[in-house]
Amino acid sequence: MVQWLEGKVVENKHWNHRLCSLSVDVQLPAFLAGQFIRVALPEVGDASQMEARPYSFVNAPHESLLEIYFNQVPAGSLSNRLGGLETGDTVYVADRPAGFMTEQEVPDGETLWLLATGTALGPFLSILKTPSIWQRFKKIVLVHGVRKADELTYGELIGRLQKLHEGRLTKINSVTREAFSGAMPERIPAAISSGELERLAGMALTAEHSRVMVCGNPGMVAESMAALESKGLKKHLRREPGQVLQEIYQ
Ligand SMILES: Cc1cc2nc3c(=O)[nH]c(=O)nc-3n(C[C@H](O)[C@H](O)[C@H](O)COP(=O)(O)OP(=O)(O)OC[C@H]3O[C@@H](n4cnc5c(N)ncnc54)[C@H](O)[C@@H]3O)c2cc1C
Question: How many Cβ atoms from other residues are within 10 Å of residue 49's Cβ?
Answer without folding.
Answer: 11
